[in-house]
Amino acid sequence: MLPRRCSYIFLIVYTSLLFSSHAKTPCDICKDIISSFEEGLAKTVKSNFGGGNTNWEEKSLGKWKTSETRLVEIIDHHICRGNNKECHMFFERNEEHIEDWYFNIYKDLDSSESLHHHLCVEQSKACCTDGRYGPTCSECPTSDGKVCGGHGKCQGDGTRSGTGSCTCDSGYTGKVCEECADNYYEQLTGTISTCLACHESCEDSCTGGEPIACDDCKDGYTWSDTHGCQDTDECSSEDDPCQDRTSTYCSNTIGSYLCQACHSNCLSCTGAQSNACTECIPGYVRTTPDIDTSSCDDINECTEKPELCKSLEGAECRNTEGSYDCRCTLDNQKIEGDKCVDIPEPEDNPDVNSSETKDDLEKTQQNIKSKQAKESVDKTKKGKSAKKVNKKSDTVGKDGSQPKIDIDSMMKEAGSVAPGQKRKYRTLDTMVLSSATGLYLVMCLVFNAELLKTSLATLVYAVFVYSYAGQYA
């Protein structure tokens, strides 16, 4: 395990390398700004000052093509979008160069100096022209007037970095990619040289694209004077490369071979099919002596050897796939020693085994349910009787006269009733609603009939009525 200090150093180095590998070079940033600026030019080419009178605007404000309004719009909406600090810093350092190109070079239709060359190459010196690299923009290696002979890329081409060495395309090699690589041959078309791939059977070199043009053959191929390098059938040789592997057969491929699995019934075979077995696994037998058409079928040991289970009293032989089994003729028996014996009856379990116990449990459950139902009915009857008694005592006094209204009890009961239930004392609700309605009408008459139209009075009354009338919902 690394010491903690070494771990920190490793983490710092790894993080710096990670960020440096993804960090953009000044040339990349400059190219991004150029791309965004050109996008802005394209999207604003048909715009105008927005006043409607184009002739007056161009006469007073100048041409829209090189107007400051257009430049501001491009910078605000297209340059360095998002929180890209590197782009903003580069733009702030070179904003005057962009303005100089826009106002002094862009308006000249005959000028061929692009914004890329003006900003990235000449002013900011972030990039080089194509075909040059490094801090001083050195020339990339060329062949026949082409960078890396036209068959590769110059490392650092167009930037202020890189080594200038050629990274060749596939099939080419050399300092300026002027030679053909191994397994490629040169083909001339007029004065143009092209490197093409040799045939797959060739070892390292060739003079053409056919097997006959190979200088040497790869392993797995054999030379033929007529056809050149041809595939070797390893499976047809006397030394079968798969013969030491159980339940496999040799399958030839171009330039090689595969050891593939036989059918599950075969110990050895000539193919993957069930009828290509040359030897069967134990418990199976070949159906025909013909190697090319033989399959392996299950052996019925019970038919071929009836004596297999005779030594076990009460048992018989039953065939299985690839084998056999001795089983008792009766389902409630098992083999112990050299005979079949009865399986002991399980002990009585009132929860599981006895049918009588199950009936008793069902009857007990029914009795419990009946008792619960009877108790529920009795409670309901008692409740109704109690309600009748309470109702009678509410309407008639002890001396037979009408009872007095107990306002305190009514208020207490009214406050304890849950929403959606009816109150016992409806008289209190009637009194409260009647009083509220009367008070509302008096207020309307005393103050002004227009009070009916005010939202405040209507809202207060509606809430009041809902609070009490809602108890009967």
Strand percent estimate: 15-25%
Unreliable spans: 1-21, 350-357, 386-404, 422-426
Share of helical residues: 25-40%
Distance separating the two termini: 76 Å
Structural class: alpha+beta
Explain this structure to me?
- By secondary structure, this protein is of the alpha+beta class.
- Among the domains are: 24-127, no CATH class; 236-298, no CATH class; 307-342, Laminin (Ribbon); 407-473.
- It is built from 11 helices and 22 strands.
- The protein has helices at residues 4-22, 26-43, 54-61, 68-78, 85-105, 115-123, 301-304, 355-395, 407-416, 426-446, 455-469, and strands spanning 132-133, 138-139, 142-143, 146-147, 152-154, 166-168, 172-173, 179-180, 184-189, 192-197, 221-224, 228-231, 248-253, 256-261, 266-269, 277-280, 284-286, 296-298, 315-320, 323-328, 333-336, 339-342.
- Strands 1-2 form a two-stranded antiparallel ribbon. The chain has a two-stranded antiparallel sheet with strand order 3-4.
- A hairpin with a 2-residue loop joins β13 (248-253) and β14 (256-261).
- α2 crosses α5 (85-105), α5 (85-105) crosses α6 and α10 packs antiparallel against α11 (455-469).
- It is flat.
- It starts with a helix and ends with a helix.
Write a compact overview of the structure shown:
By secondary structure, the chain is α+β, with helices and mostly antiparallel strands. It has helices at residues 4-22, 26-43, 54-61, 68-78, 85-105, 115-123, 301-304, 355-395, 407-416, 426-446, 455-469, and strands spanning 132-133, 138-139, 142-143, 146-147, 152-154, 166-168, 172-173, 179-180, 184-189, 192-197, 221-224, 228-231, 248-253, 256-261, 266-269, 277-280, 284-286, 296-298, 315-320, 323-328, 333-336, 339-342. Helices cover 37% and strands 18% of the residues.
